[in-house]
Structure formats: C-alpha cells, structure tokens
Amino acid sequence: MSFLVRAITLDLDDTVWPFAPIAERIERVLDDWLRAHCPRTADRFPAAAMRTLREQVFAEHPQLAHDLSTLRRMTLERALRESGDDPAHAEAAWEVFYAVRNQVECYPDSVAALERIAARVPVAAVTNGNADLARIGLDAHFRFNLTSREHGRAKPSACIFHAACARLECAHGEVLHVGDHIEMDVAGAARAGLRSCWINREGRDWAHPEIDPDLQFDTLAALADWLDAHTAPRHDRTAPA
C-alpha cells in the first residue's frame, strides 16, 4: 500500500521500548527506597499491595486518567499517610520513581529506525505515558512530545491526535500514527482521520471488529524500510521544537 505521509506521530511505551521491565524495576527500586526511608509504608504496602492501592486511586479519580504523574503521586501520598509516615516524603519517592521510569532499554531496532524515520519525515511522540525523551536521550529524533497530561485528554480521544497534527502543520490524513495498542493507537488514530500503523512485535492476531490498520509491521525498522520505499528524504533538518 502506498499513500502520502508528511509526518508521523509515534507512541512510546511498548512501541519504542518495552514497558514491563521498567514497571518491574520501578516496583523493586521504590520498595527498597521505602524500606530505607519509610519502613512503616514499606511494611504495609509491599509491591503487590502498592499496585492494588494504585489501581484503587486510579479508579477513584477517572477525571485524572490522562495524568499518570499526578495519580502516581497521589498513590504515594496515600500510602505514606495510611502507614503513619510523613506524606511529605512523597516528593522524594516520586523522584526515585521518575528516575527509574526513564531508564529505558529500547528494542534492538528502535534507535537506528528512529534515525532513519526522522530523516524522511518529522516525528512527534504522542503518548499517554510520562516518559521524558530528553532524560532518555532520544529527544533529538522528535519534533515534540505531546503527552496526555499536557494536552488534558488521553488517547484514543481524537483531540490529542488533532492537536499533534496542528503542531505538525499537517492535515489529519497526511499524518501516520504508529503504535502497538489496537484501541488507543490504531483505532483512535483511524477515528481521528489519521493513517494508522500497528507495530505488532509479539505476532498477535488483529482483533478489532470495525477498523484495520493501514500498515502493520513487527518492528520500527520495517516501517523505516517502507518509508524509504515510499517517501523522499526530508530537507527541513531543523532542530526539534
């Protein structure tokens, strides 16, 4: 299939890097920190209990579903308060969490593929997560990083895709959104009028009753190959905004 692509919006977690190892490391490092600084909280909320509390806090505040950072902080504050520790420790605990959250290990193909993709078209991150591309060291490949927290609504809401298109100065149908999640990424982008690309690294079967992706690859490298075959190199090698 061939069609015009003037820009790409790109999901991050489980598209550029796997998130599960990050989540496991967060739980381990945060538990170690709490045991050293807030042992009552660590005893009352070991990793599994902290996970349950987080899910409870998320369920109680659906209006903040777009703002994972605030929900994480609220979870830490509640855990400290309910354990009899000073909730003021939540800020230091958050910094521990956020440092680990940005210690990512990209999929083997991702960095080289990003370089190739960004040489063809402008790339913008559109994510419901809270990764910091500058901390990670990948920001040079992106025009900008539009997070659901910044925008105020999360994928699959059409408005976050439209906001990215506006910042890229492209019509909706000229932008290809790339991501791993069937609903959040592919279906959300398609409903918003964007082209869609499913990154299916695990060999899953497509499972949406109404929408099919325009493209499907098992790596970002394969997407880069497609772009090499269907688009001209960029000439606006300006610094990311």
From TrEMBL:
GO biological process, one term: riboflavin biosynthetic process
A GO molecular function held by the record: hydrolase activity
Keywords of this entry: Hydrolase, Magnesium
Coiled coil region boundaries: none
Named cofactor requirement(s): Mg(2+)
Cited InterPro entries: HAD-like_hydrolase (IPR051400), HAD-like_sf (IPR036412), HAD-SF_hydro_IA (IPR006439), HAD_sf (IPR023214)
The keyword Cytoplasm is assigned to this record: no
Gene3D superfamilies associated with the record: 1.20.120.1600, HAD superfamily/HAD-like
Transmembrane recorded as keyword: no
Pfam families: Hydrolase (PF00702)
Name of the featured protein: HAD-IA family hydrolase
Species this protein is from: Luteimonas salinisoli
